[in-house]
Amino acid sequence: MVQYIEKLSKEEVLNRIKKLADEIYNDFSSGNPSIKLAVRGNIKNIEYDEKRDIITLKEKIGSREFFNLGHVRRFMQTLLVASLAKKLVEKDKTASLREVYYQLKHTIPILNVNTIEEQEESDAVIEDLERAIKAIREQFHIKAEGRGAIYGDIYLRDKKRGDEWNCSKLGRGGWSIPSTIEDIEIGDVNADFVLVVEKEAMFDRLIEERFPEKQGAILITSKGQPPRGVRRLIHRLRKEKNLPVYVFTDGDPWGFYIYSVIKRGSMNLSQFSELLATPDVKFIGMTIDDIDEYDLRKKGAVIKLNQRDIKRINEIANYPWFKKSKDWQRQFRKMLDYGIKVEQDALAANSLEFVADTYLPDKLEHPEKILS
């Protein structure tokens, strides 16, 4: 299993980059230069650690070889990214994925070939470097655009700038979560639990209905599939503050997988599950049972499954972490039998206030309705 360290000092990151450079230099001396790195995570190259309830990457090593025509371009690009990463860490500067692309893109004289054509290339090479030196990109000062927000009575502090703020005092939009939160210190938290909401519109609804104040909640919206910064913040809130975490998504295979990613990690980033996954989060809804309990079908507040939905249900139902759960298998079967799915927004068929005043409080009062 590939392991990553949660805290890496500036010196440790630089040492890892230098070690990679030394290994390549020595390989040149022996006539066979290569870059060794863990193979990218996919369904065939991951394993489910049932004891810890997370997805991990198998210990399978690949390589980029300088004298392999199929590898030489990626080899060169990896060295460019490693060199830039070293400079960023040394100067204590950060660069976005887009800035890295423009920093590295240029035309090689005589050959008249660009080092990088599209940003997708540089993004993939950054992931290669992560796997080569066993450090996440934020640790070598490369970041993505932030996405997601947090609202509630929680104090955060920027250790670099010294700024401190309460996330309930920044207006209804809360605080925008950046892609890296390693320099953010979590201070006093006056709340009983964290509620992670898939959609920004539902996040806004709950704030408007004053759900955080009434229920003692910290709200986080992932705005769809949660990016690294959001997942890392959820992980830290659970680990550092011991707050229960509930996930609230649409009742469809895509929402169920969002929950799975928050809980167990993603296949694509399975090497980072120890840093990003939060194994003891609970799923508060939407469930297929909600369709019956709240008469959503009678109110026309459901959506017919399409072929893409059906294919995805069958896929995730066979993932080992879902396959072992009778409760989740029942949800999948019921969804297929009914041929329908349900969105968070469907609760508005009862009233705009229903989700904050009735649905979520009822779930919290009846833990048997919550899935794990």
UniProtKB/TrEMBL annotation:
Residues 193-364 form the Topoisomerase 6 subunit A/Spo11 TOPRIM domain. Its cofactor is Mg(2+). Residues 73-142 form the Spo11/DNA topoisomerase VI subunit A N-terminal domain. It comes from the Archaea. GO terms for cellular component: chromosome. Residues 148-188 form the Type II DNA topoisomerase VI subunit A all-beta domain. Pfam families: TOP6A-Spo11_Toprim, Topo_VI_alpha, TP6A_N. The active site is at residue 102. Its EC number is 5.6.2.2. SUPFAM superfamilies: DNA topoisomerase IV, alpha subunit. Signal peptide: none annotated. GO terms for molecular function: ATP binding; DNA binding; DNA topoisomerase type II (double strand cut, ATP-hydrolyzing) activity; magnesium ion binding. Mg(2+) binds at residues 198, 250. PROSITE patterns: TOPO_IIB. It catalyses: ATP-dependent breakage, passage and rejoining of double-stranded DNA. GO terms for biological process: DNA replication; DNA topological change. Keywords: ATP-binding, DNA-binding, Isomerase, Magnesium, Metal-binding, Nucleotide-binding, Topoisomerase. Belongs to the TOP6A family. Relaxes both positive and negative superturns and exhibits a strong decatenase activity. HAMAP family: Top6A. Homodimer. Heterotetramer of two Top6A and two Top6B chains. This is Type 2 DNA topoisomerase 6 subunit A. It comes from Nanobsidianus stetteri. The lineage of its organism: Archaea, Nanobdellota, Candidatus Nanoarchaeia, Nanoarchaeales, Nanopusillaceae. The gene is top6A.
